[in-house]
Amino acid sequence: MQDQVIMDNVLTSVKNACDIFMHGTIESSTPNVNSVFKQALNDCLCMQNEIYSKMAQKGWYPSTSAPQQQIQQTKQKYSSAN
Predict the structure, then answer these.
(1) 11-37 as b/e, with b when 16 or more CB fall inside 10 Å?
(2) pLDDT score of 81 more than 70
(3) Where are the alpha helices (DSSP H) in the chain?
(4) d(CA 49, CA 43)
(5) Cα dist. 48→4, 36, 56 in Å?
(6) CB 7 within 8 A of CB 60
(7) 1: helix, coil or strand?
(8) What percent of the chain has pLDDT over 90?
(9) Maximum CA pair distance of the chain?
(10) pLDDT mean over 51-57
(11) pLDDT at 16 over 90
(12) What is the pLDDT of residues 39-49, one digit of tens each?
């Protein structure tokens, strides 16, 4: 199996774990459980970011920048909603 495919599968798995930990944090019924889920979510998000960064460095997860005009329009749209 190619390294890129393996990394893509790992990234997908970590994203799914982040989703589970997020829901655990939201649904937790005690401060202690909430704290454990929050820490697990934070750790998982850090892991996801590291994997994404490595993939992006190798060109396996290309991303494009949004035009500055589009960014400004989006900011205005949501700032006027408040």
Answers:
(1) beebeebbeebbebbeeeeeeeeeeeb
(2) no
(3) 3-27, 31-57, 68-79
(4) 10
(5) 15, 18, 12
(6) yes
(7) coil
(8) 77
(9) 50
(10) 95
(11) yes
(12) 999 999 999 99
Burial class (CB in 10 A: 0-12, 13-18, 19+), 65: exposed
Residue type, 54: K
Kindly report the average pLDDT of the chain as a whole number: 93
- The DSSP symbol for 67 reads P
Residue with tokens 């700032």: 79
Which backbone phi and psi does 4 adopt, to 5 degrees?
-60, -40
Q: Do residues 24 and 40 touch, judged by C-beta distance below 8 A? A: yes
pLDDT of residue 82: 61
